[in-house]
Amino acid sequence: MSRIQLKQSPAASATASQDARIIVREAMRVTLASSPPPAEAEAAVEMKTTTAVEGVRVLCSEEVDGRRWRYVAEVDGSGRLRKGAAVRVVGLERRPEVPMDDLISFIRSYVVPEGFPDSVSPSYVPYMTWRALKHFFGGAMGVFTTQTLLNSVGVSRNRATPGAVAINWIIKDGAGRVGKMIFARQGKKFDYDLKQLRIAGDLLMELGAGVELATAAAPHLFLPLACAANVVKNVAAVTSTSTRTPIYKAFARGENIGDVTAKGECVGNIADLLGTGLSIMISKRNPSLVASFALLSCGYVFSSYKEVKSVVLHTLNRARFTVAVESFLQTGYVPSLKEGNSQENIFSLPWSKHTSIVLGSRFKDAFQEPTSFLALQPLFEKERYIVTYNPLKGNVYALLKDQAKADDILKAAFHAHVLLHFIRSSNGSRTLKDSGGFDHSASDGSLSTHLLPTTLDFQAHIAESCKTVANSYGMFKRKAAEQGWRMSESLLNPGRARLCSPQ
């Protein structure tokens, strides 16, 4: 079947040709005004001469960094593409340039990830702000500590030979590396107590800097003091390095963790250099060493605290799990990510023994007499854990059975918090009744020994907690998931003890 040829009227053909001339004329006018590169200008002139009669068809438009382009092809008198017609490009317009735009774009390429702010979480900006300020104070302190160490070792006063200076310095650095290797065995704690270790590491960094400054008062003790300071600072460096990646991972939206990490480290280095430069200028005026260190140290610690508090993590570790469960038991709601992170206690150390709840404890720590265990065993016959309260130690213990899986460990932790909540509520009521409104609970989170419930009391609390957990644990998990929380039993740091069937 032959193709049907549609003929255009002379008037339509003339109109199309006139429209094409208008498009080309306007395109050339804008192109010349925007001063395109010579090759583009020659292409545009050639198009104007070759399409003055026949016209062009606009294929598409394109924008690159504020510059707009139009791709066209030649057409014949009937409006169809000419055989063998080539695609031509015409620069249409250029966004007005501001002299500072290029500078701002250059700076952004070094300090923020590509696609910012959509490529990172909202907490990225406050975290990086406080991180930069912390590195600024750290860089400034580095000038004074280095100057003090050099003076103490005898470089500036020629009190030691170059060989002795080099040996002392090498021993100092070697001691620091040994401390770094020893502390690295705490690796798992960097995952479930990230913020707590991060703030502890920054405090250790300040302690190390203080010991370095102490060498100015006792230069004859340079080697032991410098070694101790370097061990402490290297331990702090391990903490900072180990907790850095999980924090940056919390900021990344998508597969841009490498970009976020690189830009974060760049911001820290820039701030460190600025602080170093300012401190060099200040040190030339011989300021008071103690006053300068005290001021910079306060700024460093405060910035470190705000930096850690600004981090919003999605995982529930022990501290955030406690916040979430207590809020759920008191209000029926699980806090949002931002609220849960802001309420987390970041000053509780992972190796602290003063804990109200022991997850995965030993049998001998939880039970002092066999009758208590035999009385509670029927309540947990269908569970893969046992939760109890030791009135002598004032702690709640969750014992895990050998069949316990991930969800069983999470449920045991939830049950332990429910039981602790009931016991504290009961003791709170008793305290208000007996002492006229004052709370005498222990400051470490455990219960006061003179307010401990009797054996019958805590067994009744345990039976009541079993009913509450059966009705509310599923609801707690659902509400936590709705808020964006991710639960993992490993982040709760359960003990390795497991109850086995008697042989």
UniProtKB/TrEMBL annotation:
Residue stretches making up the Protein root UVB sensitive/RUS domain: 102-331
Domain spans labelled Protein root UVB sensitive 6 N-terminal: 15-94
UniProt-listed Pfam families: RUS6_N, UVB_sens_C, UVB_sens_prot
InterPro entries found in the cross-reference section: RUS6_N, RUS_fam, UVB_sens_C, UVB_sens_RUS_dom
Domain of life from the UniProt record: Eukaryota
Root UVB sensitive protein C-terminal domain span: 334-494
Family: Belongs to the RUS1 family.
Name of this chain's protein: Protein root UVB sensitive 6
Organism: Acorus calamus (Sweet flag)
